[in-house]
């Protein structure tokens, strides 16, 4: 049924449609947007005018529908100043995906005609895409701070848009702020010397001086990659003569720069596998700890959580992952959120190839695949192995697509590509990926198009045993994409390092609270091995084999409760809470108030909630203001879901 439906849709429109946009993007498409934003960070408000250039794609149109959420619309007018009418409706009663803005045009527009119109509106603290932070929430405490998070369908609370990865547009922006010395602002675009069109803002008080910054993004991008950050910010190159830069509050910038000194080498390692970086420079912003993800791949302006700065370099795979998105995700994009693995699976695949070139540690790469597989398995257990969300093609009809995002598009996507590489051969697969990127650069596609390209490429290259390979590729393709639960083929990532780490874990269990002879081996482990050791402890805790006296001895030897690396610390807390340890609640509550990244704090909340629901709720209430809206929703659903189970 699903496959038949998709074939019919493809026949009509070329690619799968996006069910999470209310816009009429199949009839008319945004080509360029100019944002003009007057920031009032104290009042947590932005006065905005956005000017659009649309092109009619269908036969004719007399209205334009855009996505929006929680914006206040004042006026919509054509380029000749004629004000046009608009209405707002709610295609879904729960409004979780926002509203539809219907703009009634002054006349009928025919195919290929351009429509230029502007919208005056304001953004306030209801916006789910913007975090407005008081200066007390920042590190330097000099001035307020704001940052955006638009993926996947949150950009509609930043501006009325065709909020779908299917549509790519160029953008320019004028950002106006009070001229306070410490303030700066950056966007996912180049800074421009050209001064763009300025509206008259009655809010610009002549008693102050104002700072204007201009931006231009000349490469067409989808709306979810539009980003802005403003605050007490400093920018510095990460190495002499390289292409990579770092932005953060000034008090931490030297510390971060030291940890990120090899960014240029990361970029070169990725290029070695996949080809040239085409976006010019690369900049990473280390945001305040309430940023809800490890990283976000906004072009020219990757956002990252300070939790990746571990002082040991163990969090840098996140930086490599976000860089790899410059090819998969930002240059070649999924056409809807049901095809998210077209972004994430390919990016994880490229991240691990580049990590192999950079670190030269094949075992470490395999161990990372095992850790990713364990996280995916845990998501499958949580969702239920029959849940459609555990497939590589989740149905996001009628829901906020955020709900469908799990580790599955990342790790099952990675495993599917590893499976295909095994059939095709590593060298042929690499050159296929390079050709795939060139063919679809700056476009958005679905998985069916990838399959067609792959088979056409292999045929045209006259690869050996084409018929056999074609059969092997197609035999399991639909199972990989549509079948829920575990992958149809289980891949083997095992290494001797895995066995060593498992034996090390057992040595602690059988020592029954004494120090095992080999305890110091831990200090020579790869970061991935340390994670696997902690995941093994978690499994022992689930099987009720992790005794409290063993926990005490491990902590005495390895000092995990005061560990600086958040990736290790969260796994430690998850394991000991699952084992029933209630002696470290103070440290755990403090930890949960320092990290706003769901990947890290959500598993701890889950374990804490199962052990002591009241304390979990109390901890969440204490830190509620610190968390981003996205993670508040995730934690709330953990607390509610597990509480029902307890009842
Ligand atoms: Zn990613």
UniProtKB/TrEMBL annotation:
Q: Which PANTHER family match?
A: LEUKOTRIENE A-4 HYDROLASE
Per the Swiss-Prot or TrEMBL record, the active site comprises 322, 410
| Cofactor binding comment, as recorded | Binds 1 zinc ion per subunit.
Q: Name the keywords, alphabetized.
A: Hydrolase, Metal-binding, Metalloprotease, Protease, Zinc
* Residues annotated as domain Peptidase M1 leukotriene A4 hydrolase/aminopeptidase C-terminal: 494-639
State any GO BP term from the record: proteolysis
Mind telling me which GO cellular component terms the entry cites? cytosol
Q: What family is this protein classified in?
A: Belongs to the peptidase M1 family.
GO molecular function annotations of the record: metallopeptidase activity; zinc ion binding
Q: Which cofactors does it use?
A: Zn(2+)
The protein's name in its UniProt record? Peptidase M1 leukotriene A4 hydrolase/aminopeptidase C-terminal domain-containing protein
Q: Does the keyword Metal-binding apply?
A: yes
**Alphabetized InterPro entries for the sequence:** Aminopeptidase_N-like_N (IPR045357), LTA4H_cat (IPR049980), M1_LTA4H (IPR034015), Peptidase_M1_C (IPR015211), Peptidase_M1_dom (IPR014782)
Pfam families registered for this protein in UniProt? Leuk-A4-hydro_C, Peptidase_M1, Peptidase_M1_N
UniProt superkingdom = Eukaryota
Annotated positions binding Zn(2+): 321, 325, 344
């Amino acid at each position: 049924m699903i496959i038949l439906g998709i074939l019919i849709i493809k026949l009509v429109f070329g690619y799968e449609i996006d069910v999470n946009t209310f816009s009429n993007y199949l009839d008319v498409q945004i080509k360029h947007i100019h944002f003009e934003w007057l920031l009032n960070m104290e009042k947590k408000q932005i006065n905005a005018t956005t000017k659009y250039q649309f092109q009619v794609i269908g036969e004719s149109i007399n209205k334009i529908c855009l996505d929006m959420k929680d914006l206040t619309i004042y006026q919509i007018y054509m380029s000749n100043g004629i004000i046009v009418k608009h209405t707002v409706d709610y295609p879904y009663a729960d409004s979780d995906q926002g509203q539809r803005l219907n703009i009634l045009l002054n006349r009928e527009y025919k195919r290929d005609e351009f429509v230029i119109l502007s919208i005056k509106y304001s953004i306030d603290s209801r916006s789910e895409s913007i975090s407005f932070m008081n200066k007390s929430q920042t590190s330097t405490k000099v001035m307020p701070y704001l940052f955006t998070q638009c993926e996947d369908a949150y950009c509609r609370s930043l501006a009325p848009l065709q909020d779908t990865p299917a549509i790519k547009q160029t953008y320019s922006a004028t950002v106006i702020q009070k001229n306070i010395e410490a303030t700066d602002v950056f966007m996912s675009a180049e800074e421009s010397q050209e001064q763009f069109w300025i509206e008259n803002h009655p809010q610009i008080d002549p008693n102050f001086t104002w700072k204007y910054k201009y931006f231009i993004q000349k490469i067409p991008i989808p709306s979810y990659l539009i980003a802005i950050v403003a605050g007490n910010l400093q920018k510095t190159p990460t190495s002499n003569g390289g292409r990579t830069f770092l932005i953060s509050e000034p008090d931490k910038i030297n510390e971060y720069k030291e940890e990120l000194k090899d960014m240029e080498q990361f970029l070169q390692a990725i290029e070695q596998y996949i080809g040239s970086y085409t976006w010019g420079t690369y900049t990473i912003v280390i945001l305040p700890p309430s940023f809800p993800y490890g990283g976000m791949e906004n072009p020219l302006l990757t956002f990252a959580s300070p939790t990746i700065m571990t002082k040991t370099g163990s969090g840098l795979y996140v930086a490599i992952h976000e860089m790899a998105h410059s090819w998969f995700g930002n240059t070649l994009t999924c056409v809807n959120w049901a095809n998210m693995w077209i972004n994430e699976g390919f990016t994880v695949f490229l991240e691990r190839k580049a990590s192999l070139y950079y670190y030269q540690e094949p075992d470490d790469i395999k161990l990372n695949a095992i850790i990713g597989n364990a996280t995916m398995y845990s998501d499958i257990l949580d969702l239920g192995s029959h849940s459609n969300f555990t497939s590589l093609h989740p149905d996001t009809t009628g829901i906020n697509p955020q709900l469908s995002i799990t580790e599955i598009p990342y790790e099952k996507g990675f495993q599917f590509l590893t499976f295909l590489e095994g059939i095709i051969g590593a060298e042929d697969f690499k050159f296929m990926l390079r050709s795939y990127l060139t063919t679809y650069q700056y476009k958005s596609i679905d998985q069916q198009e990838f399959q067609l390209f792959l088979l056409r490429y292999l045929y045209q290259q006259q690869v050996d045993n084409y018929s056999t390979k074609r059969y092997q590729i197609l035999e399991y393709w639909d199972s990989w994409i549509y079948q829920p639960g575990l992958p149809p083929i289980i891949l083997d990532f095992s290494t001797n390092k895995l066995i060593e780490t498992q034996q090390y874990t057992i040595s602690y269990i059988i020592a029954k609270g004494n120090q095992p002879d080999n305890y110091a081996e831990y200090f020579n482990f790869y970061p991935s091995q340390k994670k696997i050791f902690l995941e093994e402890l978690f499994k022992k805790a689930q099987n009720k084999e992790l005794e409290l006296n063993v926990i005490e001895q491990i902590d005495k030897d390895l000092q995990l409760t005061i560990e600086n690396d958040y990736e290790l610390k969260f796994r430690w807390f998850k394991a000991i809470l699952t084992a029933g340890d209630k002696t470290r609640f103070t440290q755990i509550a403090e930890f949960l108030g320092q990290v706003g990244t769901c990947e890290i704090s959500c598993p701890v909340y889950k374990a804490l909630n199962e052990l002591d629901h009241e304390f979990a709720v109390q901890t969440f209430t204490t830190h509620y203001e610190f968390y981003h809206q996205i993670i508040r929703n995730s934690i709330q659903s953990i607390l509610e879901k597990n509480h029902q189970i307890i009842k």
